[in-house]
Amino acid sequence: MTAFPDFRSPRWAALSALLTTGVLLTACGSGAGGSGDDSGKPTSGGTLTFAVGSDAGCVDPQQVGSNESIYSVRQIVDSLTDQDPETGKIVPWLAKSWDINSDATQFTFHLRPGVTFSDGSKLTSQVVKDNFDAVPQLGALGTLAQGYLSSVKSTVAVDPLTVKVTFKEPNAQFLQATSTHSLGIESSASVQKTPQQKCSDGVVGTGPFVLKQYVQNQSITLAKRTGYDWGSSLWTKKGEAYLDKLVFKVVPEPGVRAGSLQSGQVDAISSVGKANEAALKGGQVTLLRRANPGVVFGLGINNSRPVLKDVKVRQAILAAVDRKQIADTVFPTGTQPATSVLAHTTPDYTDLSADLAFDAAKAKSLLDDAGWKAGSDGIRAKGGKKLSLVISWFPNAATNQPALELVQQQLKAVGIDVTLKQNQVSQFATTLQGGDFDLVWGNVTRADPDILRSSFSSKLANFYRLPASSLDTALSGQAATTDTAKRKQLVDEAQKLIVQNAYNVPVVELQTQLAVTKRVHGLAFDSGSRIQLHDTWIG
Description:
By secondary structure, the chain is of the alpha+beta class. It is found in: Cell envelope.
């Protein structure tokens, strides 16, 4: 008998965020320009052709976790709120205002009137209720949305334009969750489809663009939504988008994407690697970069392993990693070494760079204190057993293997023998759930510090097997308070506890790097280091 996981569990909220999925098949693209005036003022019209590296095999925003697919499907749906990428502040979008009770268990949203879906149906509180009620049934691909609503008690349509969401326990993170693509609002007709139908056929949203065609592993084509007039309060342009059409071509090879951009076949490309930077710099190409918010790329430690239960061993690993060398050698220009368990683009981030300084001598001293003595081969041993660890990794980014080979060398230099174990992407969730790992390489993107609770609370997912401690109190506390100063203090405490106890080994901040031709204007990152194309135009 096969046991299936409960995908409504908070455990699964963080799992899919660590994955970048997609089948890599070659495709080619061609760009078409819009009209521009010589004054540099924004003009309407034209097609933006964007080459991405992969296709997640799904065009439902509520089920997609891969950045390469989020770029396109995000344009189809609007969210109740939006988040300022500079300040982290939550601002109006489909909801013109909201009320939160004192213990953050009840959220009441007041919807904008006059909003319609592209099938002509109206946005009402009942539609929002239908969306939230259906999220638990999304299945394996809907884990992000399910996590945001994991402790929901009820969603009630108070009146046609007022919806009230009540949770069983304090849930301060939910307001930010309503700004994500994962809780983008879809029409009632779309909600009634099966998750599989939504993935293959797409959904109807209120967004500035409409899905016109999806050819799996080849392309996604969107068209401008006529009459659109309810954009985010962060957007510059009012009303409809500038561009008439968006075409996302799947081009797996980084070099081919770069060549297509240089030749004018496409207007923008994703996932620009270090090897292609030199060829793209200057000329008619602009490189755009932003660190992904959330838990940085690093080593998740199985804290229940006998060797790794010793805090001195974990701290030795933390001190032995030369983050700057890894960032400078392997990753795209501008990639920052980790200075906390959170990236600096995450609200309430704390700079802990002093605690993450590279210090091989300190690492050796800690291992000496823990009783691990160097043998003739340089590898340490204790009680006749060598200090050997396995790092599990998943081939979802070209930088993974070279980064880990450097980590392997750095740990060997202080006497730790490391084996790198490559797994299939499909094995990621079961590996974490089963606990059959020493260390695992990954990150989690989210523009809210509650991602720490999803990842490190012993009361929730706890796939890193942390013991119950004061960390739980800090993580639960920050989720329960609406006092911004108090929340910041608790998030600060949580970051320090994670780093100083070496429950995790932060390495580098994952950076999203795009390249666009200089005829593309107004393409900017949102709070999650993804893109919103309503304000984008071609000149």
